[in-house]
């Protein structure tokens, strides 16, 4: 049986377009090939992608052993470690996921509202009226603070500062060309090399310190941070997580949850600043929960930060009329599915109203992927976005420096705003009235 159609472009050109204008490549692929397309990347090879919710459902509900994640062999593997949820497959993945899931349950999440709110307001306090700035680094600072406090539970000021510095140093390095080289060599050797190795070791030493401090603190069941919850969790045989497992999951939660949420927040503001009626509605009433939720759903639809998720097929799977053979590297286009014109009218338009009277569909709205690998932090991230957006809309007047929409740029595997959401700060409310209890 024939494979899905591919673009009439050599692999090097497809790769170059993916690097420079990724959404233009995905839009062209849909226009010329339809919902199912073979992309050919150099040197990675063929990647078959679907944007049809029916195929997405088939992929996400397939037995996990038939469609293992492709992340295990990616450059992120050596960094997050072999016990990470991102790299494990099969029984081990499910065991680890079960240990982590209770920490992300709705009831637990409410405990983090105050931490998120405090981090957002502390950041807004630093903003100066008249300043022009990229919003993205400010959002990254807030989401990192949230991870340090809500996930790692770091209370000691010196360790907090040291860990923050080590993480920022590592993350800054991962964005450099040197890091890409280290990652390629490291992926081939299955281990970290060069500066990536040393910077990760510096962070790890502090993480193991924090784990030891949690253990010596005792009374873990009284603490609310996710590290404490993970340390209390036990599998069906009564086994808890080892220090190495805890370290790998902490790094996983950091890498999976920090920049993704910060970038989604930057996109939310980028879109709002170019959609005056939506901005006015929220500025007039930041407490309008239903509309704020709709803005978040629409942001994650229109600007999914992770554009595609991949699986390595162990059995053939049908995508539309095409039988994709075992051994193929296949996946869901989160961007393509979220923009499927058969599901969304005018998919390129930013229109929060579409989510006012309908809930996002499990297989047609997929910014968090799906199935047993669906983002474990999806509820956490949406709650975090809501609290931080509300704090910004309540206290600061922001405007776009340039009203032209920011284009989508690719950074590693994520889609970010080209200029990091450039804003001009107007008035900042310096003495916000006593805040309502934080709800998400
Ligand atoms: C808006 C923010 C976020 C977005 C867009 C996002 C997106 C994603 C996506 C697309 C996946 C892959 C799903 C798949 O393969 O089907 C994923 C996995 C994951 N995410 Fe998120 N994520 C976000 C925030 C977070 C947060 C806040 C955390 C935790 C603090 C987190 C932790 C994880 C973990 C642990 C996985 C691996 C799950 C597994 O393989 O079982 N993410 N995320």
Quick summary of this structure?
The chain has 440 residues and is of the alpha+beta class. It has 17 helices and eleven strands.
Description:
It is a single chain. The protein has 440 residues and is of the alpha+beta class. It has a single domain, classed as Orthogonal Bundle (Cytochrome p450), CATH 1.10.630.10. Helix content is 50%, strand content 12%. Helix 7 runs antiparallel to helix 8 (135-151) and helix 9 (157-174) packs antiparallel against helix 11. Bound molecules: protoporphyrin IX containing FE (HEM). Protoporphyrin IX containing FE (HEM) binds next to helix 13 and helix 17.
Distance between the termini: 50 Å
Q: What is the string of SSEs from the N terminus onward?
A: HHEEHHHHHEHHHHHHHHEEEEHHEEEE
The CATH architecture category equals Orthogonal Bundle
What is the CATH topology assignment? Cytochrome p450
Bound molecules: protoporphyrin IX containing FE
Label the overall shape.
globular
Query: How do the strands of the widest beta sheet line up side by side?
Result: 1-2-7-4
CATH superfamily: Cytochrome P450
Radius of gyration: 22 Å
Q: In percent terms, what proportion of residues is strand? A: 5-15%
Q: Major beta sheet, specifics?
A: 4 strands, mixed
Average pLDDT, all residues = 93
Class of secondary structure makeup: alpha+beta
Number of helices: 17
Number of β-strand runs: 11
**How much helix is in the residues?**
40-55%
């Amino acid at each position: 049986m024939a494979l899905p159609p591919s673009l009439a472009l050599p692999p090097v050109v497809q790769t170059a377009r993916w690097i420079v204008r990724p959404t233009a490549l995905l839009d062209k692929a849909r226009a010329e090939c339809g919902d199912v397309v073979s992309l050919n990347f150099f040197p990675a090879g063929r990647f078959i992608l679907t944007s049809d919710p029916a195929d997405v459902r088939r992929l996400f509900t397939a037995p996990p052993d038939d469609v293992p994640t492709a992340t295990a062999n990616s450059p992120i593997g050596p960094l997050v470690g072999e016990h990470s949820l991102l790299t494990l497959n099969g029984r081990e993945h499910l065991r680890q996921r079960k240990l982590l899931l209770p920490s992300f349950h709705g009831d637990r999440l409410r405990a983090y509202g105050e931490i998120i709110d405090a981090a957002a307001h502390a950041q807004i306090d630093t903003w100066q009226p008249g300043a022009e700035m990229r919003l993205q680094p400010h959002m990254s600072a807030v989401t990192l603070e949230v991870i340090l406090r809500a996930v790692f539970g770091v209370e000691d000021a010196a360790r907090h500062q040291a860990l923050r510095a080590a993480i920022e140093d590592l993350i800054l390095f991962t964005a450099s060309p040197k890091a890409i080289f280290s990652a390629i060599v490291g992926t081939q050797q299955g281990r970290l090399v060069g500066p990536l190795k040393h910077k990760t070791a510096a962070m790890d030493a502090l993480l193991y310190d924090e784990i030891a401090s949690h253990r010596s603190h005792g009374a873990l069941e009284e603490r609310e941070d996710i590290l404490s919850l993970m340390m209390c969790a036990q599998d069906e045989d009564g086994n808890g997580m080892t220090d190495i497992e805890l370290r790998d999951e902490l790094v996983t939660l950091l890498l999976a949850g920090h920049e993704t949420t910060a970038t989604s927040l930057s996109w939310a503001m980028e879109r709002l600043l170019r959609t005056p009626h939506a901005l006015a509605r929220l500025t007039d009433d930041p407490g309008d929960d239903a509309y704020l939720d709709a803005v978040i759903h629409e942001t994650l639809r229109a600007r999914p930060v992770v554009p595609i998720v991949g699986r390595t097929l162990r059995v053939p799977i049908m995508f539309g009329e095409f039988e994709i053979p075992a051994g193929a590297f296949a996946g869901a286009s989160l961007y393509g599915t979220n923009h499927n014109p058969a599901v969304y009218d005018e998919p390129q338009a930013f229109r929060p109203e579409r989510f006012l009277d309908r809930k996002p569909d499990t297989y047609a709205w997929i910014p968090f992927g799906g199935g047993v690998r669906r983002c474990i932090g999806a509820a956490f991230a949406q709650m975090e976005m809501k609290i931080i957006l509300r704090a910004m809309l309540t206290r600061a007047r922001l405007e776009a420096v340039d009203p032209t929409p920011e284009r989508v740029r690719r950074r590693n595997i994520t889609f970010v705003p080209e200029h990091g959401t450039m804003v001009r700060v107007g008035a900042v409310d310096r003495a916000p009235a006593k805040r309502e209890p934080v709800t998400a």
